[in-house]
Amino acid sequence: MSNILAINAGSSSLKFQLIRMPEERVQAKGLVERIGLPESVFTIEVNEEKNKNVSDIPDHEAAVKLLLDKLTASGVIQTMEEIDAVGHRIVHGGERFSDSVLITDEVVQQIEDISDLAPLHNPANLTGIHAFREILPDIPMVGVFDTAFHQTMPEKSYLYSLPYEYYEKYGIRKYGFHGTSHKYVSQRASEMMGVPIDQLRLISCHLGNGASIAAIDKGRSIDTSMGFTPLAGVTMGTRSGNIDPALIPFIMEKTGKTADEVINVLNKKSGMLALSGFSSDLRDIEQKADEDERAELALEVFAARIHKYLGSYAARMSGVDAIIFTAGVGENSDVVREKVLTGLEFMGVYWDPSRNNIRGKEAFINYPHSPVKVMVIPTNEEVVIARDTVRLTGKA
Question: Which residue has the higher pLDDT, 56 or 212?
Fold first, then answer.
C-alpha cells in the first residue's frame, strides 16, 4: 500500500491527486490557480467535499507547502512522510525519453536541454519538480512524459519531408502529445474487450479543447495527428490544426502581421472559435447549432477532420478492432460522436444511437454484431502517472 502524489504543474497553476495504490483510489484532488498573482485560488476535494480558499501564493514552493498542509489538515495523511512518491507530468521528452524515468539531477538537466521543444510547458513542469524536490528531498520522484507513448512510431510516421539535416540538427519531427491519455484508454479498452492488447488495432480519439487521434497497433502508437507541436492535426478549440504552410507568409503579407503573430492566431484565435465566430467551447456551439449556420459549420468541420483520420488510420493498420472516444468532448458529446461515426459502416462500424446517448461513463456504443467496437472511456492520466511512479520506485 502506498500514497502516490500525481502532479501537473503549469506556469501559474498546480493540479494534484493523491492516489492510494495499488487499488488506485483517489483520496484527495485539487488545483492551485493564479500562483504568483494576486488572489491565488486553492481548491481541494476530499470525500466529494470541495473547499476553496483565496490568498496570495507567491510561488510554486509556497503552493507545494500549502498543498501538503491542506492534505494533513484534511486528515487524508497525518504527516508528509506518508507520501511515498511523487509523479510529475512533463509535456515534452523529445527523443531522449521513451518511457517514464526516475527524476535525478541528470534527468532534470536533460529536460531543461530540450525545453526549446516546449517552451511554454517544460519550464513550468520543471518549476513544479524543483519545488517538490526542495520540500521533499528524500522522497523519490518520477517524470511521466506526454510524448513518450508515441516514441514507438516508425520513421515513416514521424519524419517530415524536409531536408534530413533539419531532423539531425534540430530534432524537427513529429512527436505527438496526449500520450498518457492514449496509453490509459488503450489499455482500458483491452480490459473491457477481454482481448490482450497485443492482439488489437485501436484508434483513440482524445477530443477536448485540444484534440489528437492515435493509431495504436498491438499496444504501440504507430501514428498520431499532432506533430512537432500540438498545433498540428484536427481542428481544435482555438487551434487551426493542419493548414497549408504557405498560408503563413501569405497571411503575413496580407495583414502585416509578424510570423509570431500569425502563429499566435493559429494557436489562439482559430479552430472552433474562428469557425463559429463566438466560442471555442463545444457546449456553447452545440446549443446554437440548430439556429446558427456557423455553429453548425464548426461542428461539421471538427467532425469531418476526425472522420478522415479514422479512415486513414484504419488503412495504416489494415483494419481496426475498436474506436475509442475520450477527454471532455469525446466523453460527453453524443452529437460529435454521431457526426464522426456516420458513414463508417463500410469499414465495419455499426453504432447504436440509443447507446450513444451517454455522458462521461464507460460504455460500448456499438451494436453487438458490429465487427468494430466503439467505446467511450473517460481518461485518467493521473492513474497512469501513479502506475508508472509505483513501477519505477517500487513503492507498491
Answer: 212
**CATH code (residue 223):** 3.30.420.40
Does the residue 127 lie in any domain?
Answer: yes
Strand partners, 41: 33, 54
Ligand-binding annotation for 329, yes or no, is: yes
Q: Let me know if residue 170 belongs to a domain.
A: no
List the domain range (segments joined by +) for residue 341: 195-381
**Residue 150 annotated as binding?**
no
For helices 381-393 and 179-193, angle between their N-to-C axes, nearest 10 degrees: 90
Which residue of the set 56, 69, 113, 146 is catalytic?
146
**Binding residue per annotation — 134?**
no
Q: Where among 145, 178, 206 does a domain terminate?
A: 145
pTM of the model: 0.92
pLDDT of residue 288 exceeding 90, the answer is yes
Residues 330-368: tens digit of each pLDDT: 999 999 999 999 999 999 999 999 999 999 999 999 999
Active site residue 146: yes
pLDDT in tens, 208-226: 989 999 999 999 999 999 9
Number of structural domains (the chain) is 2
Q: How many angstroms separate the CA atoms of 88 and 126, rounded?
A: 9
Which amino acid does the sequence have at 199? Q
Query: Cβ neighbours of residue 341 under 8 Å, at least 6 residues apart?
Result: 323, 349, 351, 374
Residue 237 annotated as binding site: no
36 and 128 within one domain: yes
